Amino acid sequence: MKVAAVQLHCSKDRSDNLARAATAVHSAAQDGAGLVVLPEMFALLDRAAAMREVAEPLNGPMLAWAQQLAIETHCTLIAGSFVERDENHPTKLFNTSIAVGADGSLLGTYRKMHLFDVDIEGARSKESDTFSPGTEPVIVETHGLRVGLTICYDLRFPELFRAESLQGADLIVVPSAFTTATGRDHWEPLLRARAIENQLMVVAPGQWGMSPDGIDRYGHSLIIDAWGRVLADAGAEGDTIILAEFDAQVQEDLRQRLPALAHRRLNSGIN
Predict the structure, then answer these.
(1) Active-site position among 40, 84, 127, 164
(2) Which of 50, 51, 60, 213 has the most CB atoms around its CB within 10 Å?
(3) pLDDT digits (tens, 9 = 90+) for 158-207
(4) Active-site residue, from 10, 84, 112, 164
(5) How far is residue 72's CA from residue 56's CA, in Å, rounded to a whole number?
(6) What residue spans define the domains of the chain?
(7) Active site residue: 10, 84, 127, 152, which one?
(8) Catalytic residue status for 152
(9) Overall CATH class of domain 2-257
(10) What are phi and psi of 80, to 5 degrees?
(11) Count of CB atoms within 10 A of residue 178's CB?
(12) What is the pTM of this model?
């Protein structure tokens, strides 16, 4: 099966962002992708006040948009993430990723567990001022595959990836808006490490350029195989679609020949 990662630049114009995202998903589907992944906060990535303004319940316009797009393109869509408002606690917001099947069904919902609270020049952020953390890993099933869901900063926490791997993930997606300040040194090494140590494909679409919140985004959306090889790199700039073939048999053969997962001795509490 072909998988696709969509790299986008987020402007202040939410309607334009959604339109460009939809065009990219249609293009990826026409190129044969059965699974398409959008970046983190692809519809709007702005300062906290603006993010709160666009917050919506899970069963709202963003889900409807993703469902219609998945049906139109006949592919599974991981709609990067959006600002979800808790219907029972209106002041509580989540950074939420939704997975929608080709028939429009909601396959799963993942709320970002690790919040980006850092004081790095060029990447200062305190997501916890806006968002509440999610509480559990999420795996969805599509095309006979099990797909693990994560978002951006989750990449730095290998225990989440290992938990999803042990739950049977065949590949893990990492929709992101990684900063240039951290991405130039950490983005590719971390993604390759997560792929190698869990012996699975990693699909990581990102944003690029200066986002409306004033932070420069790194781009370089990547698709990496279970050996840690970069199969596709979108580069630093440009709205771009990258594709690669996921071969379940090749991945399983690797796990059989180098059974590192089976050799685990440490009981880390995430069996």
Answers:
(1) 40
(2) 51
(3) 999 999 999 999 999 999 999 999 999 999 999 999 999 999 999 999 99
(4) 112
(5) 23
(6) 2-257
(7) 152
(8) yes
(9) alpha beta
(10) 10, -90
(11) 30
(12) 0.96
